[in-house]
Structure formats: structure tokens, C-alpha cells
Amino acid sequence: MRWTPFPRHSFSAAYGLHSRREKLDYYYVQKEVEGKVINNKSLDFSKAHHFSLGYEWSINPLLHLKIEPYYQYLFHIPVESNSSFSVINY
């Protein structure tokens, strides 16, 4: 979304929800739970919310200023048991 209140100034906002499938071998990791060996069938897509705000100022024909802070919130990220290590670190 973009708003231009004045000819040389504009503001923008953006949002995105993105997901991705992990490598297939992560889905076939086997672990033992209560004496049974099971596959990692409950692994969901890794997901992220992306937020961005922006300000643009065309100072003159040769000089342009753009400020754009960005925030990303990751969730459903697979992690190794009893660790803070995640597969997105690879």
C-alpha cells in the first residue's frame, strides 16, 4: 500500500505471510517415543509474518532518500529436541 500526500513524498506499508517446505529428509527423521520408533509426520511448513513501513523523499532529480524498517516474525520453525538449534541455521 502506498500513499503520496505531497508530490515528492510518499509513505508505504506492506505485509506478507510466507511459508516454505523444509528439506524432505527432515520429514523422515525417526525418533523413539514411548518405545515406538516414529517418523516426523507432524512437521508443518516453516512460516513467517513480514511487516514493512517506508518513507520516500525525492530530494532532487539526482538524490533520493528511502527509509524502510522491516520486521519478521518466524513460527512453526523445527528445532532440535532439548536444544535451541534450528534447521534454519543450516
Describe the SSE topology.
Elements (H helix, E strand, L loop, with lengths): L1 E5 L2 E12 L3 H4 L2 E4 L2 E4 L6 E15 L2 E5 L2 E6 L15
Antiparallel strand pairs: 1-2, 2-5, 3-4, 5-6, 5-7
Cα radius of gyration in angstroms: 21 Å
Into which percentage range does the β-strand content fall?
Answer: over 45%
What's the total helix number? 1
Order of helices and strands: EEHEEEEE
Overall helicity: under 10%
Largest sheet: 5 strands, antiparallel
How many strand elements?
A: 7
| Helical/strand content category | mainly beta
Poorly predicted segments: none
Shape: rod-shaped
Q: Determine the mean pLDDT.
A: 87
Span of the ends, CA to CA: 34 Å
Give a written overview of the molecule.
It contains one helix and seven strands. It has one helix at residues 24-27; strands at residues 2-6, 9-20, 30-33, 36-39, 46-60, 63-67, 70-75. β3 (30-33) and β4 form a beta hairpin. The longest helix has 4 residues, at 24-27. The mean pLDDT is 87. The chain has 90 residues and is mainly β. The strands form two sheets. Strands 1, 2, 5, 6 and 7 form a five-stranded antiparallel beta sheet that branches.
Q: Can you give keywords for this protein?
A:
five-stranded antiparallel sheet, 90 residues, single chain, 1 helix
Question: Can I get a quick summary?
Answer:
The protein is built from one helix and seven strands, in the order E-E-H-E-E-E-E-E. It has 90 residues and is mostly beta strands. The mean pLDDT is 87.
